[in-house]
Design brief:
By secondary structure, the chain is α/β, with parallel strands linked by helices. It contains 17 helices and 15 strands. The protein is globular, with a radius of gyration of 22 Å. The structure holds pyridoxal-5'-phosphate (PLP).
Length: 450
């Protein structure tokens, strides 16, 4: 680890002005009063500004799937920066973006042959929604404008993403800006499914909610449905058995596109390349980001079925016409593309997705051993993901779990909480003894919580 020593840490502490930066998704006043700064990282660990080694239980943010600062990824980025720092992707391009695209679609489900690059998950979501609208229009079904999301969905923070999303915190200020949107009911059903091991048995019928929305709006007006196969940011919600299959078949019945938002599940998290593989359901589009570059450089993408890409090419007008009027200055940026190539190669070389599948039973066992600990009302796991749901404190939603986060941090383990759920998602290089450490700290912390 390229670790600053004690003196360097002290200098940093004395020189750093925390005020100019407006920190995202953070209680800024509280943070600046007692900052938590990470100054270096290697494999499974961060170094904190106060010189502690912190076990990373969340792979950065569901993203650093191969562990931190892996030399092959670092070197690929360095080399690319010296070779070509930037090339416009508009009417020009550079080779590494094509190489990265090939590696991404190689991992995707059969028939999903093309990828459009973005810089984040939010941009991937908004891009996918635009592709859906433009696709139907190109096919002469331009009335299909309604986009359907799901309650408790999280699809990033663009206007499209928050509109189809179902997280109240995101929606309350801006969520009604996109007009033609509706939502399926969420699938969380703790009364029937609490403490299930693996996929919940009950709730496939929640997919029939799409029939209700078709009856309300008429299929001729509906463009797409977007769901996370496993919802992360609203508390690690697993799809009930048969739910995604049923959603797929209702979409097929009415010509509605199905989009899986795999920003957190993409690139191995559930034990296969995509959750689409794990659940055996192929959507029409997959949005992804985060682990595509092992989070070393921002990058996202929308992977689409061949038929969607072909429609744009076939109906795109004269050969000189731009078929999809959309893109970002940094789409397929050389550094991101180089990081993606190196990361996807590393996942393969080290068989990291297989490692997730191998570790998953042990992980599940350790998570479920927390049953009976104070405040725990449900435990959900898949691959290397765990959601440990706590009973909220009266009138203080989220406060108990946030306190768990702070106490775990003091005990040198980084966890994440969303609402009153502790959400764990470590890098795939994690060792069993590190799994033990994470759950043992969570266990100790639970015993001390208010
Ligand atoms: C399912 C899902 N979609 C979209 C996003 C947004 O991605 P980003 O933060 O890269 O914009 C996230 C982020 O966590 C996510 O979990």
């Amino acid at each position: 680890m390229n670790m600053p020593d004690e003196k360097a840490l002290r200098q940093l502490h004395d020189s750093l002005n925390l005020q100019p930066l407006w920190i995202p998704f953070t209680a800024n006043r509280q943070f600046k009063a007692a900052p938590r700064l990470l100054v270096s990282a290697k494999d499974m660990y961060y170094q904190t500004q106060d010189g502690r080694k912190l076990l990373d239980g969340i792979a950065g943010l569901w993203a650093v799937n191969a562990g931190h600062c892996r030399p092959k990824i670092v070197e690929a980025i360095q080399k690319q920066a010296e070779t070509i720092d930037y090339a416009t992707g508009f009417q020009m391009h550079h080779p590494t973006a094509f190489q990265a695209a090939e590696k991404v679609v190689d991992l995707a489900p059969e028939g999903m042959d093309h990828v459009f690059f973005t810089n984040s998950g939010s941009e991937a979501v908004d891009t996918a929604l635009k592709i859906a609208l433009a696709y139907h229009r190109a096919r002469g079904e331009g009335t299909r404008r309604i986009l359907i999301g799901r309650e408790r969905g999280y699809h990033g923070v663009g206007f499209g993403g928050i509109s189809v999303g179902g997280m109240v915190g995101n929606r309350k200020t801006f969520g009604n800006m996109l007009g033609s949107v509706d939502h399926l009911r969420h699938t969380h059903d703790p009364e029937r499914n609490a403490f299930t091991r693996g996929i919940p048995a009950h709730g496939a019928e929640f997919a029939d909610d799409l029939e209700r929305l078709v009856a309300l709006h008429d299929a001729s007006n509906i463009a797409a449905v977007i769901v996370e196969p496993v919802a992360g940011s609203t508390g690690v919600l697993l799809p009930p058995k048969g739910y995604l299959q049923r959603l797929r078949s209702i979409c097929d019945k009415y010509g509605i596109l199905l989009i899986f938002d795999e920003v957190i599940t993409g690139f191995g998290r559930t034990g296969k390349a995509f959750a689409a593989h794990t659940f055996g359901v192929t959507p029409d589009m997959i949005t992804c980001a985060k682990a595509m570059t092992n989070a070393a450089v921002p990058m996202g993408g929308v992977i689409v079925k061949k038929g969607i890409y072909d429609t744009f090419m076939d109906k795109g007008g004269p050969e000189a016409a731009i078929e999809f009027f959309h893109g970002y200055t940094y789409s397929g940026h050389p550094l991101a593309s180089a990081a993606a190539c190196a990361s996807l190669d590393l996942f393969k070389e080290e068989k990291l997705f297989e490692r997730v599948a191998e570790l998953a039973p042990y992980w599940e066992e350790c998570a479920h051993a927390l049953k009976g600990s104070p405040h725990v009302i449900d435990i959900r796991t898949i691959g290397l993901v765990a959601g440990i749901e706590l009973q909220p404190m009266t009138d203080k939603p989220g406060a108990r779990a946030f306190e768990a986060f702070l106490r775990a941090y003091q005990k040198n383990v980084l966890i994440r909480t969303t609402g009153d759920t502790i959400a764990l998602s470590p890098s795939f290089i994690i060792e069993k003894k590190q799994i033990d450490e994470i759950f043992s700290v969570v266990h100790d912390v639970l015993k001390t919580l208010p």
